């Protein structure tokens, strides 16, 4: 469970989940958190209400109907741990969160060392302020070039040829392993969504077809998967 003692002490100090009150939860991430799906015909398709943040909101509100959960989505497309650190004060801390969910990785491979250092500073700052935090690892990228990529994401066909190299060659495995190890070393709870996607691949799931843009944005049903994984981490693991 998420820094369970800190989280429950913080929340219970104001309210009891079963008795009502309000809880502020901030999500800091990239385009997946933002709610970006397919990118076809020159139009980037955003649907924030279909993102895992809103699906999580619905789930936790069903579990604790007397509590008001204020969900702040601070995901920005193209974001990295470094850009997340730059806007941490404005987009996270200013909301006085009771819980922060940090989710970066898909865009971070270009400067792993720099982004790893930035992620550590994010965790350090939240720990300093005694704000409970979860690091949520992200989904896999495409493992092959999809046959329908010309229709699904025509402007990124060349990029779709490069991302399988990152995914299949171990770059993304190493990145998320490094991020999760860092989180654990800082006392930050990990929700390992990436590891679950890897297990799905081992079971024969077609990873590429679970991506709305056939590159890196999960289909809507996989946002349900992420939301449930977070609920599981918060209350059961």
Description:
- This protein is 47% helix and 17% strand.
- It is an alpha/beta fold and 237 residues long.
- Helix 3 packs across helix 11 and helix 6 runs parallel beside helix 9.
- The longest helix is centred in the middle third of the chain and has 17 residues.
- The radius of gyration is 17 Å and the shape is globular.
- The model has no long low-confidence stretch (mean pLDDT 89).
Ordered list of secondary-structure elements with their pairings:
Blueprint: H1 4-14, E1 21-29, H2 31-34, E2 36-40, E3 43-46, H3 52-63, E4 67-75, H4 81-86, H5 88-91, E5 99-103, H6 112-128, E6 133-137, H7 149-152, H8 157-168, H9 171-185, E7 189-192, H10 193-202, H11 220-235
Parallel strand pairs: 1-4, 1-5, 5-6, 6-7
Antiparallel strand pairs: 2-3
Helix pairs in contact: 3-11, 6-9
Offer a concise description of the structure:
With 237 residues, this protein is an alpha/beta fold.
Task: Record keyword descriptors for this entry.
237 residues, alpha/beta, 5-stranded parallel sheet, two-stranded antiparallel sheet, 47% helix, globular
Quote the distance from N terminus to C terminus.
Answer: 5 Å
- The count of strands amounts to 7
Taken as a percent bin, the fraction of beta residues is: 15-25%
Low-confidence sequence ranges: none
Estimated structural class: alpha/beta
Strand order of the largest sheet: 4-1-5-6-7
- N-to-C series of helices and strands: HEHEEHEHHEHEHHHEHH
Determine the mean pLDDT. 89
DSSP helix count? 11
Helix content range of the residues, please?
40-55%
**Largest sheet data:** 5 strands, parallel
What is the 3D form? globular
Q: Rounded to an integer, what's the Rg over CA atoms?
A: 17 Å
């Amino acid at each position: 469970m998420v820094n369970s003692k800190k989280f429950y002490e913080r929340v219970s100090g104001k309210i009891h989940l079963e008795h009502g009150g309000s809880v502020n939860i901030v999500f800091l991430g990239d385009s997946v958190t933002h709610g970006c799906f397919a990118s076809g015909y020159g139009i980037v398709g955003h649907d924030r209400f279909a993102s895992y943040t809103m699906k999580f909101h619905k789930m936790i509100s069903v579990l604790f109907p007397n509590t008001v959960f204020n969900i702040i989505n601070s995901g920005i497309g193209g974001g990295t741990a470094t850009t997340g650190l730059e806007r941490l004060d404005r987009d996270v801390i200013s909301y006085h969160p009771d819980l922060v969910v940090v989710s970066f990785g898909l865009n971070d491979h270009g400067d792993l060392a720099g982004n790893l250092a930035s992620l550590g500073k994010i965790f350090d700052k939240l720990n300093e302020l005694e704000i409970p935090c979860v690091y949520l690892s992200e989904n896999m990228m495409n493992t092959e070039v999809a046959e329908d990529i010309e229709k699904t994401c025509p402007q990124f066909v060349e990029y779709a040829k490069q991302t399988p190299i990152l995914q299949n060659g171990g770059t993304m495995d190493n990145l998320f392993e490094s991020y999760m190890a860092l989180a654990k070393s800082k006392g930050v709870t990990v929700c390992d969504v990436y590891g679950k996607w890897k297990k799905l691949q081992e079971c024969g799931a077609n990873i590429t077809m679970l991506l709305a843009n056939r590159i890196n944005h999960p289909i809507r049903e996989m946002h349900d998967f992420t939301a449930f994984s977070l609920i599981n981490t918060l209350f059961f693991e």
